[in-house]
Amino acid sequence: MFSGIVESIVVLVDKEKDGTNIHFTFESKLAPELKVDQSVAHNGVCLTVVSIEGFRYKVTAIEETLRLTNLGDLTIGDQVNFERCIRMSDRLDGHIVQGHVDGTATVTQINDKDGSWEYQFKLADQFTEIHGHSPEKLIIHKGSITINGTSLTITDVNKRCFGVAIIPYTYENTNFNSLELGGKVNIELDILGKYVARLTH
Questions:
Q1: pLDDT of residue 142
Q2: Topology at the third CATH level for domain 103-200
Q3: How far, in Å, CA of 54 to CA of 33, rounded?
Q4: Tens digits of per-residue pLDDT, 13-40?
Q5: Are 145 and 154 in contact (CB under 8 A)?
Q6: In this structure, are residues 130 and 100 in contact, taking their beta carbons and an 8 Å threshold?
């Protein structure tokens, strides 16, 4: 389980195809603190550490993960948002994040507000009904959403489109500063909303 508060940026240094899987090797100053079999979020995707060597570690994404996320589009040198799982003694600064991405969205607008940034996104067509509800019904004004592993508050909703506002700290310490129009991001909808949708279906 994660909080959606990005801990650091890691850099992809190797990408190896293996059948329908892809092995990703990342470089991080935190790699020596990791352990094999540990769960770590990459752009909001929960992956298991399978090996560690110095400041580099390897994780594997299976076909289902690659289908629902933007991980397959990563290229060598790309920066990825990184978060280790929370400890039970930590404050929950963001919201409850599972690391189970529901699908992707496309960046449709980036507005520099001279002190903050506004981003607009559109849900990908791959998003289908979740527990009998259209995904946009699970996106509410002032509700929580996870974008590339970052816990954010929704500022506006219009059908399959929604917006968020980014403060300078988040802009500088996540890969939001490298997003471009048309770019693809990972989306995890609020788990509480998904449970409510399931109960009311």
A1: 92
A2: Elongation Factor Tu (Ef-tu); domain 3 (2.40.30)
A3: 10
A4: 999 999 999 999 999 999 999 999 999 9
A5: yes
A6: no
